[in-house]
Amino acid sequence: MNSHATARRPASERSRDWLRQNLFSSPANTLTTLLVLTLLAWLAGRFFSWAVLNAVWGQASVATCNALMGQGACWAVVADKWQQMLFGIYPQAEQWRPALAVLVFCSILVLSAMRACWRVRRLLVLWVGGSLLCAWLMAGGLGLTPVPTALWGGLPITLMLAVFGTLFAFPLGILLALGRRSSLPILRAASISYIELVRGVPLITVLFMASIMFALFLPEGVSFDKLLRAQVAIILFNAAYLAEVVRAGLQALPRGQYEAADALGLGYWQTQLLVVLPQALKITIPAQVNSFIDNFKDTSLVIIVSIFDFLYAVRQAVISDLDWRHYFVEGYLFAMAVYWLFCYTMSHYSQWLEQHLSRDQRN
Amino acid sequence: MPITKNIARSLAALTLGVTAGTALAGPTLDAINKRGTLVCGVHTGLTGFSAPDRNGKYAGIDVDYCKALAAAILGSPDKVKYVPLTAQQRFTALQSGEIDLLSRNTTWNSKRDTTMGSVFPGVWFFDGQAFVVNSKKNPKVRKLADLNKASVCVETGTTTERNLADYARANKLTFKPVVFEGQEATEKAFQSGRCDAYTTDSSGIAAMLVNLPSRADYTVLPEIISKEPLGPMLRRNDQEFFAIMRWMIFALQQAEESGVTQANVLQMKAESKDPTIQRLTGASGEVGKGLGLDADWAVRAIQAVGNYGESYDRNIKPLGLTRGMNALWNKGGLMYPMPLD
User: Fold this and answer.
1) What are the residues of chain A with a beta carbon less than 8 Å away from any beta carbon of chain B?
2) A226 contacts on B by Cβ (under 8 Å)
3) E strands within A47-167?
C-alpha cells in the first residue's frame, strides 16, 4: 500500500525522498555524503583536465609530450603506435589481414547474436565459414604470405582465445554437467573428478602445464603449436566452469519436466535435447555470459606462456620503444577502453537476451 | 608361441624406432640445416637486447647474435624464427627442443651451466646491478653507503631483490626494499618519489633514463653490486654447435679488434695481408672447416650484423650506456677473443 502511494507521487518528489533516505538521513551521513562528493568531484576534475583538457591529441612528437609530462595525457602514443598495440608483431605490411580478421570475427559475433540467424544451418555456415576465413587471413597460404603463429598477437589473439575457448567448451561443459547428474556411477565419478580437479587449479597452472610440461613429455623434435596448446588448455579449463553453470540450470528445472518427458516415452537423449537443455540453458544465460566475460579477461594470462594477447601487445608497443616508453599509462588506458567496450557490449546483450527470452516464456 | 613372438617383434620394432628417431634428430646443426631455419629463443621485449622495433621486427644485440649464426650456417640472416620467451619459460623451451639456442640476456652461472642440461659458450654482454637515486630529493647521496636506511624500489621475483638483501647484509647497511610487480610499475613508482633509489641491471637503468624529461634529477651511483655475465645458451652434449656458437662470439669480437666492419669485410678479405684477418675472413687457414662450415662463414656473419662493436653501437649505445666492461680487452674492457688459427 505504502509503495503504491509512493509510485503515484511525481518523480521529483520521489527522487528527493530517495536522496533524503539514502544520503542525508543523519548529520553524520550528510557529512560523509558531502565529503565523498567533494573528493569525487575533485578527482574527476583532475582526471578530466589531465586526460582531456591538457592532453596532447593526434599525431605529435615526443618532445611535445615531454614538455607536458605530468600535466596532460599524451594520446599521441596511441596515435603513433595503435597498429602495434592492436596487432602485436604481425608483419606490418600484412596488418590489413588481422584487421580484416577482427572485423569478420566481430561480424560473426554480431550476426549470431541476431534473432534472424538463429537457425542451426545458418549458424553452422556462419561460424565454420567465418572461422575458416579468419584462419586463412591470419595464417596465410593460398595466395597470401604465410605468417607463423609465433608472430600473431594483439586483439585477434584475445578474441580468438576467448570466443573459441567458450564455443568449444560449451558442448564439453554440457556433457560434463549431464555426466555429473548421471545415474551411471563411473561416468558420474569421472565427471565430478574432472570438474573439481580443474576448478581446483588456477588457469595459470593449466597454461603452464599445456605450454611447458606437455613439451617435456613429447619426444624431442615433436611439438604442437604453442597457440593451439594454450587454446586447448583454455577450452578444457572453461568446460569445467560451464559444466557448473549448466548444472545449476539442470537442477533448477522442476522434477515435473523430467517426469512429463518420461511419461511421453522419450528416451534419455530425447528428454535432454528436447525438454531439459533448452530450458536449462535459457535460465542460465546471465551466468553463461558472465563466464564468457570472465574468460575474455582471463586471456590476458597467456603472456605467461609468451603468447602476445592484446594487453601485452599494448605494453610491448610502448615499453620497447625508447621514445614512448614513459607513456605506458596512456597505453593501458587505451587497453582499458577497448576491454570495456567489449565487456559492456556483452553484458548489455545478455540483458537484452534475457528479457527477450523471458518474454517468449510468458507468451 | 606366436603371441610372445609378436610381442618380441613389436618391442624390437619399437626399440629400433626409438633409436632411429634419436639418430635422425641428431645434433642441433643437422636439425637446423634440414629445417632451413634457425630457431632462436629471445626476450619478449627488452630494449637494446631484443624487442620489436617500429616495424614490428625483432632487433637488439641478442637478436644480432641469432642473425649472425643464421648467416654463417644457413647463408642468410633472415632465416631465423624468433620465439619470444618469458623468464619462466626459457629453460624448458631449450630443454624440450622447441628452440635451437637461447639468446635472451641470461646470466651465466654454475647451476645453469651444469645441472640444467644446458651450457654457455661465452659472454655476449657484461651487465651488473646498479643504483639510481633522485638527487633532487637526496642531494647528498654520492655512493651506495650514503643510502643507508633509505627506501629502494625493486622489481619482485628477480635476482635483483636477493642481491640487494645479500649486499646489505654483507656491508652492514639497512635498505627498505619497496617491491613492485613489473618493470614499468617499479620505474613509475621511483619516478613519482615513492622510494629514494631504484635498483636493477645497469642496462635497465640506462633504458629508463634515456629520453626522460627529468633526466637531470637522477644520478647513477658508481657501485655495481652483482656480476651479470649474459650469454647465449644451448643444450648439452652438442660439441659441434657449441663450437660454432662460441667462435661466433670470438669472430665478431676479433673483427672489431682487427678493424673489420660490415662495410669493409669483402675488401679486407681480398686485400688484407694481416694473417689474423686472413684467417677470420677465410682467405687462408681452415677455421670454417674446423667448425663444419665453409670458409666464408664469418664474412657472412659480419656482413649481416657488423662486428661486435658495430652491433653494440647500433643497439646498446642509444640507451646511453658506454662500453665499460664490454669494451675489448685492449681498450680497458673484458672482451677477449681467443686467437683464430
Assistant:
1) 62, 66-67, 69, 84, 88-92, 148, 150, 208, 211-212, 215-216, 218-221, 223, 226, 303-306, 308, 312, 315-317, 319-323, 325-326, 328-329
2) 98
3) 153-154
CA distances from A244 to A71, A298, A299 (A): 49, 18, 20
φ/ψ of residue A345, rounded to 5: -60, -45
Contacts of B280 (CB under 8 A, 6+ apart): B251, B254, B255, B258, B260, B287, B298, B340
Type of residue at B196:
D
List the domain boundaries for chain B. Answer: 1-28, 36-126+228-331, 129-220
Span B2-21, average pLDDT: 43
- Residue ranges with strand state E in A176-327: 308-309
- Report the DSSP pairing between strands B51-52 and B58-59: antiparallel
In three-state secondary structure terms, B294 is coil
The amino acid occupying position A248 is A
Nearest neighbour of B92 by CB, restricted to A88, A216, A317: A216
CATH label, B129-220, candidates 3.20.20.70, 3.40.190.10, 3.40.50.300, 1.10.760.10: 3.40.190.10
Q: Which amino acid is at A321?
A: D
Q: Parallel, antiparallel, or unpaired: how do β-strands B228-235 and B101-107 relate?
A: antiparallel
Stretch (H or E) spanning A189: helix A185-199
Q: Which amino acid is at B88?
A: Q
Please tell me whether residues A9 and A85 are part of one structural domain.
no
Q: Cα separation of A100 and B121, whole Å?
A: 45
Nearest to B154 by CA among B142, B162, B146: B162
The reply to whether A211 falls in a domain is yes
3-state SS, B196-245, equals CEEEEEHHHHHHHHCCCCCHHHEEECCCCCCCEEEEEEEECCCHHHHHHH
Is residue B22 very low, low, confident or very high in pLDDT (cuts 50, 70, 90)? Answer: very low
Which backbone phi and psi does A357 adopt, to 5 degrees? -75, -35
Q: Is A204 exposed, middle or buried (CB count within 10 Å of its CB: 0-12, 13-18, 19+)? A: middle
Average pLDDT, chain B: 88
CB-based contact A150 B210, cutoff 8 Å? no
Q: Work out the mean pLDDT of chain A and round it to a whole number.
A: 88
Strands B176-180 and B228-235: unpaired
Residues 6+ apart with CB under 8 A from B166: none
Q: Which residues of A touch B54 (CB under 8 A)?
A: 321
Closest C-alpha to A178, from A202, A194, A159: A194
A29 and A162 both lie in a single domain: no
Location of C-alpha cell 517468449: A360
A91 closest CA partner among A52, A45, A146, A47:
A146
How do beta strands B125-127 and B197-201 pair? unpaired
**Among candidate residues A162, A190, A177, the one with its CA nearest the CA of residue A246:** A177
Q: Over the stretch B132-184, which tens digit does the pLDDT of each residue have?
A: 999 888 888 988 999 999 999 998 867 788 899 999 999 999 999 999 887 88
User: What is the Cα–Cα distance from B165 to B147, expressed in whole angstroms?
Assistant: 14
Q: For position A250, which CATH number holds?
A: 1.10.3720.10
Residue A307 falls inside a structural domain: yes
Q: Is residue A108 included in any domain, yes or no? A: no
- Give the Å distances, CA to CA, from B284 to A9, B197, B288: 102, 54, 10
Kindly provide the ipTM of the predicted complex, given to two decimals. 0.77
Residues A170 and A286 in one domain: yes
CA–CA separation, A163 vs A295, rounded Å? 9
pTM: 0.83
Say how far apart CA B249 and CA B298 lie, in whole Å: 10
